[in-house]
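Supplementary Methods S3. Input chains for the assembly prediction are listed below.
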Amino acid sequence: MAIRRRLQAWLSWFPWYRRRAREADLERELRDHLELEAEEQGAAGLSPREAAYAAHRALGNTLKIEEDVRAAWGFRWFETFVQDVGFAFRMLRKSAGFTAVAVLTLALGIGANSAMFSVIENVLLRPLPYDHPQQLIEVWNTYLPAVPLGGLSPGDFQDWRTQATTVSAMGGFSWDESGANLTGDESPARVKINYASANLFPMLGVKPAVGRFFLPAEDRPGSAPIVTLSHHFWQSRFGSDPGVLGRVVTLDGLRYTIVGVLPGHSGVLDSPDLWMPLGQYSDYPLTNHTYHPIEAIARLKPGVTIAQARAEFESLNRQSAIAYPAQHKGFGVLVRPLQNPAAAQMRQSLLVLFAAVGLVLLIACANIVNLLLARNAAREKEIAVRIAIGASSRRLMQQLLTESILLALAGGALGIALAAAGVKLLGALAPANLSAVQTSHLNGVVFLLTLAVCVLVGIACGLLPALQVRKTNVNAALKQGSKGSGAFSARKLHNLVVVFEIALALVPLIGAGLLLRSLHDLLNVSPGFRADHLLTMHVPMASMSTDAYNKMARAQRQDATEKRGLEFLQIVQEVDALPSVKSAAGIGVLPLGSQIQYQSASRFVIENRPIPDAGVRPIVQTRVITPGYFSTVGVPLFRGRTLTQEDWNSSNIDIDEAMARRFWPHGDALGKRINLCSLERTPCWFSIVGVVGNVHQFGLDGAPTYDAYYCGGWTAYLLIRTSSDPRLITFAATNVIHKIDPMLPVDAVSTMDEILSDTLSPRRFSALLIGIFAALALSLAAIGIYGVMSYMVGKRASEIGIRMALGAQPRDALRLIVGHGAKLGLCGIVVGVVGALLLTRLMTSLLYGVHASDPLTFIAISALLMLVALTACYIPARRAMHVDPVTALSYE
Amino acid sequence: MKGTLEMLILRTLMQGPAHGHEIARHIQRTTEDVLRVEHGSLYPGLHRLERKGWVSARWETPQGGKREFKYYRLTPAGKKQLLAEHSKWRQLVASIGRVMEPAEER
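Predicted structure tokens for the full assembly:
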């Protein structure tokens, strides 16, 4: 019973609930009252008719009472609301042109924002797909300043995971991906392998799609060789065959049994093809404290803060430094919440783009404000009449706000449709390495945000014009022939909005200008070699297992490596002999393509010079090449000679110019010796025989590097210079390779031009997007200025007419309007430049070659905007020129 | 004064359940027609009080009566509200009194 009553009480808040019953109830109650009153009056001696009148007099106006009672019920807001919506709807339909322009403007602004927000939501805001992701932390070693972020050594990882008390579990995986050659029934392929501790996936809460992950017993050296497949590899190589469990794959000549498949979208763990138990990671035994290959993830115990965990790992790190001073001295520790590296990489550009698109929406709003101001001015008489017959200004404002919110909602609905198309377009435009953009789509969160934005925009746009209504002077507005009373302050408002709009448009325009200049500068950067007509392919050799390697005698090892190296030389020679091939060569790490700075590099010392501390010795990128590499790729020789067949396995090296200039500024590098194994026990001294041109190893925007080239050994990348389209040689070259060794995988076939273009694709993408947004901002602002100026010309037609009647020339009218526009434009640009100076600083990390306050960009963009603003004024100004004084004055 | 009518209604219902006409009559009689309450203004007040949960309403037939009337009665929350209003009113009257007739204080 009590529940029912409560439910009814609660339901009674709803306007619709038992509405009819309530109305009948009230009517009956009032009728009772009248009857009782009439009975009493009748008893006092009045005739029934008179008694009824008296009763009515005593009670008062029944209709008003009913209204007041309904107000007491609390539904008035709803009825008013329904009324307002109906009214707004009729008004908007009546002025279809205005409505269409406003809705379209808002749709562009809101749609662009919703599209951009769905990308942000997908890339930056969505939590990682793990159990309680907020409990997960990353644990890293640091070696400042050279290595801001490094893995843990296997030994420390083992020690810390057993000793740490602030975390409930700690798992890890090898983060320097190793590769292996997969051979079998199909053509050989190169696969990426990561090693994971047995507890890693269970700790994250990731469930296998098929089969199982590793058992603790398998996470030890010497246990049965097993692998788990990643989802994408299972799909591409095994056609999602659920019967894959128990099958055997051959990797670098060893056989592994498949025990499970990972689910799709494993968050930060998506990239490798195969997973193996960390305990079987033969390169680095779990007692090793020298190398740092392990990325550790831990789960905080409930109630433990990250600060507590940080303190504990710092103390564990100090203990390691005491226990292993030789290997661990100087290492720091870094603990932070688990994050998606893809998201971190894109955060900056996405936020800049989001800011740009937000400014576009503000400009759209400014346009709407202007439109509404103009329309309300035209409706001033209507409004004045309504005030005169008793409408409160609050009620009028409410009505106008309802109108603007309705407008915004209509704009939002159309905007969502535009956003759906926009997101698809974004996905299509996004480069392949930004896959997170491609998987973005509209979802509930985006819809909700769009709705909120619509209401906000509706209120923001409607408020200023609605407040203007309060200033309506009823007397003046109703006078015959009045042009309206609020004209003066409304004009000021229009001017202000135009200034604001120009200022807002300037900011994304300058942002776009800076990004485009960066891109332009980068396109003019030479990679250091000739990229055209150059085909590259990855031909990795199968690595020998460490066990097998350790068992061999030193001489045997040398023989084996030598044999493989010569085999590659044979490949190079036979490819070289193919028709349409000009020359071929090999290199260990492809220029431009590499991401990892320490993959093939070492700290060196120079003979007969003071030896700095280990941590501050200069780093040189070491590259193994085949003879003829420089001439094939087109790297110029500056001094000395390039390496030849004679230098095979010798201690002769070529270095790049940057290195020669830095360490031998007097041009005396030739013949000098450097030790490339300065961190190891036995030195390896190399003599410089030549100086070659600088090459961009890490992308066109990468910092210059010191490079040393040597000959001797397998070079995993084959480079082929052709006389025609380099792609055409792919098949013939692959045939040559497989004739020499059918087990060699050939992958990553690509032209150097494509690689060059890929390194720029993220920049090109953000420059394109901000360019689109800036163009949108510019056109919205131009439309806004045009609208206001046309409106002003209309308003001032009679003034211009009088001026002309008094002898002004059409030129003067033109000057009047364009001068007015120029003044507004200049004000807007001054404000915009200040805003841009403040905001572009935030995008410094996205720029290349230009300063965030680059004067040329600022001046050029300001001039462009001024030009557009003046053009937008010129069209209405021309109309002003042709104002006929007679018509203009008689219209009055 | 704002809320006075509602206070008077609550006070009237303190004596027992009543329908609208009775309440109006009672207020009019006890104030000896000084407060000429327009009967109509009573009903919005009554419905407001009902919505606030200070009175409850039900259609009932009075003892010996033939027809139903909508009877209002005080709820426990309404009683509390009346006490609070009453003491507030008393303070107000007292302080107005001190301003209007300061001689008595001396």
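The beta strands of chain B are 18-19, 55-60, 69-74. Chain B touches chain A at residues 19-21, 24, 38-41, 43-45, 47-48, 51, 53, 69-70 (CB under 8 Å).
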